Task: structure prediction
Amino acid sequence: MEMIKDSVVILTGASSGIGEETAKELSSKGAKLVLAARREERLQTLTEEINSNGGQAVYKVTDVASSEQIVELAQYAHETFGQIDVLVNNAGLMPLSLLNKQKVEEWDTMIDVNIKGVLYGINAVLPYMRERKQGHIINLSSVAGHVVFPGSAVYSGTKFAVRAITDGLRMEESPESNIRATIISPGAVSTELTTTITDEDVKGGVDQLYSDAIKPDSIARTIRYAMEEPAEVAVNEIVVRPTSQQ
Ligand code: NDP
Result:
């Protein structure tokens, strides 16, 4: 097994939901964590909890829509722990809406966070990983990165893009520098993700879909599994959804 113990993991979107559970799961296996998100209080509380349970975590307030801030995050991780083994690009938003509602600002935010944030993360860690000829980049896509439904055009567009970018990364870097690339595509998971939806016309369908949502610790274990495989094994994509979800 590839050891998670002492691996240095940068985790974005660590302040809630899947990110928070993943931080706890990886810490329980001995990872050294660098936690990032915008809400400092949440990051501070989680970091204190992990460290008081014998784990090793630091945090840095980071907006993933800023390329400079993610470069600083990677520098901070490297200064603190001496290396970067894994980046989990988990930060994301899902303000679903019908296109004719013309929520242009929400489109911009999704593209900035869900697509550009992932690219900026890759940009920030790639030099460190290429230098050591090892590393692992895990990107959160979605079942909505495989299929589109009314209201998900832009969100699905961002999650399709995450899959394309991750596969491109795999093809370029895996043979060249041993860097592994993993797509995690969850179905409905009960987190704060649906709270950004402002279009009343899609809320009903989303509430129905999320009535059977699974807990985020399932996704945390999925991420752990992808990391635990030996270095010569690349887990390229995992889809995890509620058993009842179509
Ligand atoms: P949450 O809303 O609970 O968590 C989202 C996280 O992203 C928060 O920690 C938030 O922190 C962070 N975030 C949002 N914007 C930014 C930003 N600009 N810079 C830094 N961090 C940011 O949702 P989930 O845990 O469910 O979402 C995690 C990932 O999983 C997302 O990429 C989502 O698309 C994906 N996913 C989730 C599914 C679900 O059903 N829940 C299904 C499929 C995929 P803060 O606000 O503090 O910055």
User: Anything to note?
Assistant: The first helix runs from residue 17 to 28.
